[in-house]
Design a protein that fits this description.
By secondary structure, this protein is mainly alpha-helical. The chain has five helices and no strands. Helix 1 runs antiparallel to helix 5, helix 3 runs antiparallel to helix 4 and helix 4 packs antiparallel against helix 5.
């Protein structure tokens, strides 16, 4: 299993404990506890994108695509952690749940950095190959084509 596939699997595991959060929210009694629901849905969509990008054949995830998805997932995770910090007491969210979310966020951030670094290296290599494949512009000098003389040498 590739490193990205492992990260996608781990990201999928992140959603599982979050689904149990609804029960804890109801216990909080505040209507603001329901504010996490859209964030949970967004996270589920991002994880589904990762899983579909890898596919059932567990193909290697394209670094550029991984960079984009993990960037969104990282940004979304930061919003969720901020929400947890502000509402964990009122919504009765256990401290260990928030700490696990922080650890997972760290893994996602690291994976995003790796994916984006590989994507940038691939773009640089592609541009370098394009520049090396272009005809040199020496300026002045010979222009056009040189034809081989016809007949016996």
């Amino acid at each position: 299993m590739s490193h990205f596939a492992k990260q996608v699997f781990l990201a999928g595991l992140l959603f599982l404990p979050l689904t149990g959060l609804a029960a804890a929210q109801d216990a909080g009694g505040g209507s603001s506890c329901q504010d996490i629901q859209p964030m949970l849905a967004e996270r589920q969509e991002l994880i589904a994108k990762l899983n579909s990008a890898v596919g059932t054949k567990k193909k290697q995830l394209d670094p550029k695509e991984a960079c984009a998805i993990f960037t969104k997932l990282s940004n979304q995770g930061s919003k969720m952690i901020k929400w947890f910090d502000e509402n964990k007491a009122w919504c009765q969210i256990p401290d260990d749940f928030v700490e696990n979310m922080r650890k997972d966020q760290g893994n996602i951030t690291n994976t995003r950095a790796q994916a984006c670094k590989v994507a940038a290296q691939m773009d640089a290599a592609r541009k370098n190959a394009q520049n090396n494949g272009a005809p040199p512009s020496w300026g002045g000098g010979v222009h056009g084509q040189y034809q081989m003389p016809k007949g016996a040498l």
